[in-house]
Amino acid sequence: MNEQRQRIKYIVGDFIAVALMWFIFNIIRLNDISTCFDFSKLTTFITDSTVIKGQITVPFCWVILSYYSGYYNQPLGKSRLEECITTFFTSLTGTLVIFFLVILNGLSDNENIYNKLFFALFFLSFATVYASRLCITQAAAKRIRRREWMVKSLVIAKGEKAEYMTHLLKRPIDAVAYSIEGFVDPDCPGDLTELIAEKQISVLIVSIDSNDDADLLKMLHSLYQYHLPIKIPLSNHKILTGGIKTRSITGVPLIDLASNKFSEAEKNIKYSLDKIISALLMALLSPLYVLLALQIKLSSKGPVIFKQERVGYRGKVFMMYKFRTMVENAEESGPMLSSLDDCRVTNFGHFMRKYRLDELPQFWNILKGDMSLVGPRPERKHYVDKIVQTAPWFYLLQNIRPGVTSWGMVKYGYATTIKQIIERVEYDIVYYENMSLFIDFKILIYTIRTIFMGRGI
Known about the structure:
Elements: H1 2-37, H2 42-46, H3 49-68, H4 80-103, H5 111-145, E1 151-156, H6 160-169, E2 178-184, H7 193-199, E3 203-206, H8 213-222, E4 230-233, E5 254-256, H9 264-284, H10 286-299, E6 305-311, E7 317-323, H11 347-354, H12 362-368, E8 372-374, H13 381-390, E9 403-405, H14 407-411, H15 418-433, H16 437-452
Parallel strand pairs: 1-2, 1-3, 3-4, 8-9
Antiparallel strand pairs: 4-5, 6-7
Helix pairs in contact: 1-3, 1-5, 3-4, 4-5, 9-12, 13-15
């Protein structure tokens, strides 16, 4: 609740700050453009319909720009330096866009006017927005120092380690304040599901000593199933991998074991691109959808669309859609993985699988928010339960939305056994730890090549 309220404060603060900035900037530029538009009085200028539209549109667009910068994603525990840098680049980007799209056409060829208005716009935008954000951040920091805003944590430690974490987490800091809701013995943690739900835990903090790295990692991997940040002190740095990043250097020296390198800005851009591209592809490929549906209906008995429950983001079960490639009631005897020579696959189904045309309905899953264009393939709960017995780190992949295509599908392809699925998961773990929009684009290029070359199976 505190997080959502803080996010709203930043959004409203940005809107008001930019609206104030735009009003002041219009007063500054009045003398420079009055000769072009024949505005002789300030009241005439600021009540003009175009200026009024700008007074609403510019702040709204600025909030959208800030959203895509990732600023609103994590409203609590902000670093003031990081906030200053983010605001600087957002202001610079916003100034460039507004200057060239809105202001430039109304100016004379006087170079001095260009420079004056550009730097005035940039300075005003940075000053007003950063002042607003700093006030909100400072107020939040005071509440954190007074421990009014707490992050509920569950500490997995015992003995001296438990005492050390208690001392560490109770120190007065600005970034975040942890409230310890309970301690769990690392030797027998048991099923934490009920305790996490009862205490409304937001983060798991682990601090243990172990001479056996394999046992230590096994215990840590088992925590991925709870889909919470898993934080460990720097003293356990020897078990870290390159995919882990720090959240802040100003607070408690803990590192999040479940995070990756994907920036907040890239997360928002990826989410929007998924929606836009999927909507466009569904519209453009609608004739193909119709042709495939007719052929499926004419070639075999059964529904056109095959629906199946899969485990997706944060372990949530959703209904995934595909064009039916198998005979009706293909799994009457229970779940079965498909093979290359599977007799249940229809003749037309083989064709669709070869070119991965059966996956096209999953664009609807993307529009619903269940899936992404690129991400680890979702599995059924029946197989998830089997996979995690050998590869408990599979739960880590549920921290992101599953995809229509993946690095595992590109490099490994379809899996016909649990062992093969686990081997493919290793590729997806590499993708998770190194996520970027560039890698997504690379995977899409490989997928398109696979489709056109008919290597889907």
